[in-house]
Amino acid sequence: MTPQVLILIGSESDRATMEKTVKTLDEFGISSQLEVASAHRTPVKVANLVREGEKNGVQVFVAAAGMAAHLGGAVAANTIRPVIGVPLAGSALNGMDSLLSTVQMPKGIPVATVAIGDHGAINAGFLAAQIIALGNPAVAAKLRERRENH
What is the CATH number of the domain that holds 28? Predict the structure, then answer.
C-alpha cells in the first residue's frame, strides 16, 4: 500500500522525534512511510524518493532535519504536493538555525513550517491530516471529534 504521507528525515538520529508524526497519523488512519535521506549527503536519493512518492500517490511530504535544514526545500524542489518542514534541534543554536533554514524559502517553493522538535513533529501529523481531510470525509470527522474531545 502506498503511504499517503512520506516522511523524510535527515539522519537516523531524527527517527525518535519523527515517530511522533507517524503516531499522530496512525490516530487518523493515515498511512505513512519514514525514510532517511539527507539533502546534503544523499540528494539524489531525496529526489528519487519524492518523485516516486508523487508518482505513487503520496499526498503530503514531511521533511525533518536539524542544523542546516535544507531537506524541506530539497523535497519542495521536486514536487508540487504540500511539504511540511519540521526543524529539529541539533546544534548549539537549539534548532533556531533549522527553523530559519526551513521557513526561509524562495517564493513559489513553499515549505509549511511547524515548531521545533516534538511539538512540531506532532503538529506536522495534524497538518498533514488536515490537508488529507480536504478530500477525505472520514479523516475530517476524526479531526472534528478530536478537537471536540480535547
Answer: 3.40.50.1970
> What single-letter amino acid sits at 137?
P
pLDDT digits (tens, 9 = 90+) for 80-113: 999 999 999 988 899 999 999 999 999 999 999 9
How many domains is the chain partitioned into structurally?
1
For residue 2, give Cα distances in angstroms to 5, 31, 39, 58.
9, 8, 23, 7
Which whole-number Å values give the CA distances from 63 to 57, 93, 130, 137, in the listed order? 17, 20, 17, 26
Phi and psi based region of residue 61 (left: phi greater than 0; alpha: psi -120 to 50; beta: remaining): beta
What is the domain extent for residue 119? Answer: 5-149
DSSP 11: S
> Using CA atoms, how far apart are residues 12 and 142, in angstroms rounded to an integer?
31
113 neighbors 143 (Cβ within 8 angstroms)? no
User: What's this model's pTM, rounded to 2 decimal places?
Assistant: 0.96
Rounded to whole angstroms, the Cα distance separating 25 from 70 reads 24
